[in-house]
Amino acid sequence: MPINQYTVFIVEDDPSVRDALGLLLGINGHAVALFADAESFLRAYRPDWLGCLLIDIRMPGMDGLALQKSLLEKGSTIPVIIMTGHGDVGSAREAFRANAVDFLEKPIDHDKLLRAIEEAYSRQSEEETKDHARTEFDGLLQQLTPREREVMSLVVAGKHNREIANTLGISARTVEVHKARMMTKLGVHGVPDLVRLSLTGQGNGKPGDER
Description:
Elements: E1 7-11, H1 15-27, E2 31-35, H2 38-44, E3 51-56, H3 64-73, E4 80-84, H4 89-97, E5 100-105, H5 110-141, H6 146-156, H7 161-168, H8 172-186, H9 191-202
Parallel strand pairs: 1-2, 1-3, 3-4, 4-5
């Protein structure tokens, strides 16, 4: 999705701060959605939302760090920027451990905020690209037979034909046949291309593992 179709989701309990941020970002061309607390955001949240999240760290009820962790538990990849009027090293460390893009102290420096949003959008775009690659890779894997998947996993692991043959209890010639068919189906022209495709499609998973 084009970056200009992303949204900044602002979760801030102070209405004056919330409205001021919404106005600032709107003037700078950003689509915004405003929420008064973490609970209302979670009730409205949809996994297909794209953009970034701008969260106040201290709010009644669920605080910003708890919201950030809750989204991670849901599998959300939407980047998070934390705001605080009471910054401390411990909170900043906790936010960054949960993959926060930035930790901004109030009063918010507008230039720093806009740069943080640009960085967040860049991360979101990269995640979209990875998701697309994983989806394409999953589609390609569906074309492979179970044996071809086994051969692929061993090839990507660096095994030679004879090692694969011994592992699977088949002949080296049969391994070559499976490997050739597997590479044709995946549209790759050699082991380096196969490894690259596997790593791209699987992210941090083990090559050849099913998701």
